[in-house]
Design a protein that fits this description.
single chain; alpha/beta; 5-stranded parallel beta sheet
Amino acid sequence: MPEEALLIINPCSALETLLTQGEWRLSRARSLSVAEEKLRHGDFPLVLVAIDPLQNETLRALIAQHPNRLWIGLVDRELLACEKLRSLLAACFHDFHTFPLDAARLCHSLGHALGMARLIDERQRPKLPAKLRLIQGNSEAIIQLREQITRLQHSRLPVLVTGPSGTGKELVARELHYGTFGEEGPFVAVNCGAMPHQLIQSELFGHVKGAFTGAQAHKIGKIEAADGGTLFLDEVGELPLEDQVTLLRFLQEQCIEMVGSHVSRSVDVRVVAATNIDVEQAVAQGRFREDLYYRLNVVRLRTPALRDRRDDVQLLANEILAEVRGSRPLTFSHQARQAMQAYGWPGNVRELRNRVQRAAVMCAGPLIEAQDLELANADSLLFDGSLKAVREAAERQALERTLARFPDRLEEVARQLAISRATLYRLLDKHNLL
């Protein structure tokens, strides 16, 4: 008899009769909430679920929380005409069967899935640490991104990750790292936009004692600290031109020279860079070296804006809420879910996280409403008799639409709205869009 138990969600008597005649150790969950509890505490490599189409989004969220299980769906044949159900099956399920069940085919499918689950478990166990938060989502854009990351697991080519702010570029870098090095190699992140210009050389390459005023001890740099692992250069587009030259030299020679020293040392580092600027435009304008661009852009990955993966909004919101609600029985109201789905999310996943975290703390009851997320429908403000409310709703809508057109280009946003940069920052802060 297999050691692994089989979890059945929404079991029917015919299915139970069929499986109890075999060699499966069954565990039953009469609802998705019970299944969530069992999956959190039990070891179930396989999950068999009779799909209720009214629970599609809740089921997506549950599957996303347990990506290392293999899921097999059971559906009524006529429901396959539903496009959303077909999308769910294609994105989330290892296999599916239709009622009435074919006993031989189902048993063969379960046996094959169990073998696959064991292989997946063996491959992933040494690679993915428990603390790693996987990229969540089942949209086409995220599925494609995951496939690209998987193909790069056995490569050490430099990777350039581009995309708007708040879309998870560092998370992509970490998955690339753990896929290649596991927990054995170091992952060193450097925020190129946050380092003072006069300290960049020292931070990247290290310095010897006495190299400059204040250098009271020998200090290794970020690149040397990443030896045998991954160097993540975040906001690489913000690196000054003179410092781009020394970074280019390192990428060409794979050698470093500490500030104040004339001794070179070779290092073995996989470089992943990220930026939210239009790099090609920066090269054309002379703000970013073309030769450095080609050194970093050997493989290009793009993180999609949240507005381009709306199918993932509910799933991500559920995941974030599960992290922050603690023991409170919180959930989103129907109006809150509608508001989240309709919103443009100029701040992307980072903004979604901030809004859900704040709402989980500030809401009064067990339901998070649209106003708790500060996403109450602007149209409803037109009926409260307040000219100020109408003006602020229009103001916010104009900001959101322009930010969506020109993500991460605040100067262009200000120009389009015919306001100064200072006024733009004040309005973004006022409407919590920073």
